[in-house]
Amino acid sequence: NSAPLRELHVALVGMAGSGKSAVAVKYITKRFIGEYDSTLEDNYCRQETVGGQCLMVWMMDTVESATKDEMRWIAWADVYVVIYDVTSQLSFQYAEGILERISRHEHVLCPREHRTLLVGNKSDLERYRQVSETEGERLASQHKAYFAECSAASDLRQFTQSLHSIFQNIISGARS
Ligand code: GDP
Ligand code: MG
Fold it and tell me: Where does the record place a coiled coil (predicted)?
């Protein structure tokens, strides 16, 4: 009685240096690798079971560039993961800009509410923190997004839990 494999597309977006590649690699392989080519755009996939549903999770580790269509990920993705670096106020402002861009596209997409996850990465660097957890939570709730802090270097649990909650929403939405 194997349920059919369901594909889910997750786009990781955020300012360069915020840790998109590190989070993607950690999520897919469970390993933290120190350095990534910041110009490389990559797709990763992992099969996993969430709520009894077998999923093929595709992650697009995006790189923004002036020459490419910046928003090509917006129609592709079922889930948006907007990442900033808690030690960089600038990356937080950048994340806010992306959340606003996603909101502006909502009318042309299927309902995207509760399909966005705002992530404050590098929570291991507490000494250098520039963005409080409260600020992150507030921005997320303004955009009806989930919120998690995580560290690709040491602890991805909050990230994984929030992502799985979104997967559950999508799965149950499809059934009803
Ligand atoms: P991207 O440009 O958004 O893909 O960012 P990267 O994944 O390339 O990460 C940028 C830099 O931050 C790299 O040197 C990573 O090793 C580092 N980095 C990423 N995530 C973390 C983290 O959670 N903690 C710490 N301490 N460093 C991180
Ligand atoms: Mg990268």
Answer: none
